[in-house]
């Protein structure tokens, strides 16, 4: 879209992703004088302009960061409110957490409250299944965080990763924390909380990638004892001050320099 905005003539992008970030980029380019139609659908038509101009623009809230904090509330059985978030951008995550038993309240247009506190939800969280799909389906970038959450829920779940291959590295690390996970190709079967099964317990684990790393931090907050996550530069690629934000919510977390 960026290149086509200043290319000669009309460009048509087919099979385009329909994610909010695409629409947001299009809106920014339009604010800069570009001509773009169809962003947010699978076909985008761009008529090139000779020159663009500057514009002031506020970018869309990060739906994956929001979804990660929603998972953090759930895995620690806490209640948090988060903003700014566009509730429709985290709709699939909201549906899954409601299926698990969480209570989710809209506070105005750009804030949500997520509660997994057992007295408020009347029991413990239940397992749910996930199949990742292109937006507006369940995002691949929240799969790892939900896998961590599901290791603490009552019952077993099936996770199907259908967007991106090789996105199960966190499973092996979660196993080190005591989780029961069987990976079969791009799917995983997670055995959740069961009577007689030991809950997660802390140890040293390694972040192989961005979302898998975030998932290990979430698991570490739910685990007994101390969890050390190595290779956190992966997490820093996609979360600004993740440790500070979690600490401000009450997590016992610190960065080792
Ligand atoms: C619409 C959607 O859900 N996009 C996700 C996708 O975007 P992203 O655009 O990064 O993903 P790609 O389209 O590059 O890749 C998706 C899949 O297609 C395969 N592939 C890609 C190009 C190609 O020429 N041949 C091929 O086989 C890749 O190997 C992968 O399995 O992954 C990102 C990283 O997790 C997520 O942030 C995005 O939300
Ligand atoms: C996979 C992601 O990003 P990257 O391709 O930079 O690892 C992500 O945003 O979850």
TrEMBL record:
One of its GO terms (cellular component) is cytoplasm. Belongs to the EPSP synthase family. MurA subfamily. Its main location: cytoplasm. Keywords: Cell cycle, Cell division, Cell shape, Cell wall biogenesis/degradation, Cytoplasm, Peptidoglycan synthesis, Transferase. It is found in: Cytoplasm. It catalyses: phosphoenolpyruvate + UDP-N-acetyl-alpha-D-glucosamine = UDP-N-acetyl-3-O-(1-carboxyvinyl)-alpha-D-glucosamine + phosphate. This is UDP-N-acetylglucosamine 1-carboxyvinyltransferase. GO terms for biological process: cell division; cell wall organization; regulation of cell shape. It is an enzyme of class 2 (transferase). InterPro entries: Enolpyruvate_Tfrase_dom (IPR001986), Enolpyruvate_Tfrase_sf (IPR036968), MurA_subfamily (IPR050068), RNA3'P_cycl/enolpyr_Trfase_a/b (IPR013792). Pathway: Cell wall biogenesis; peptidoglycan biosynthesis. GO terms for molecular function: UDP-N-acetylglucosamine 1-carboxyvinyltransferase activity. Residues 1-246 form the Enolpyruvate transferase domain. Its EC number is 2.5.1.7. It holds the Pfam family EPSP_synthase.
């Amino acid at each position: 879209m960026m290149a086509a905005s200043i290319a000669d003539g009309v460009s048509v992008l087919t099979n385009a992703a329909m994610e909010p970030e695409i629409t947001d980029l299009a809106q920014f380019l339009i604010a800069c004088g570009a001509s773009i139609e169809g962003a947010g659908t699978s076909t985008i038509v761009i008529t090139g302009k000779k020159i663009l101009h500057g514009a002031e623009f506020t970018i869309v809230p990060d739906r994956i960061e929001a979804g990660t904090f929603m998972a953090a509330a759930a895995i620690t059985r806490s209640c948090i409110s988060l903003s700014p978030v566009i509730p429709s951008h985290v709709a699939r995550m909201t549906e899954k957490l409601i299926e698990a038993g969480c209570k989710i309240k809209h506070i105005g247009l750009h804030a949500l409250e997520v509660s997994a506190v057992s007295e408020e939800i009347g029991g413990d969280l239940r397992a749910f299944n996930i199949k990742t799909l292109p937006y507006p389906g369940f995002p691949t970038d929240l799969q790892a965080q939900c896998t961590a959450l599901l290791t603490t829920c009552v019952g077993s779940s099936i996770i199907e990763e259908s967007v991106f291959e090789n996105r199960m590295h966190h499973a092996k690390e979660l196993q080190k924390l005591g989780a029961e996970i069987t990976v079969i190709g791009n799917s995983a079967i997670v055995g959740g909380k069961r009577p007689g099964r030991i809950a997660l317990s802390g140890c040293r684990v390694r972040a192989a990638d961005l979302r898998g790393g975030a998932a290990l931090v979430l698991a570490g907050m739910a685990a007994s004892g101390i969890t050390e996550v190595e290779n956190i530069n992966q997490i820093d690629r996609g979360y600004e001050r993740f440790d500070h934000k979690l600490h401000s919510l009450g997590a016992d977390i610190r960065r080792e320099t």
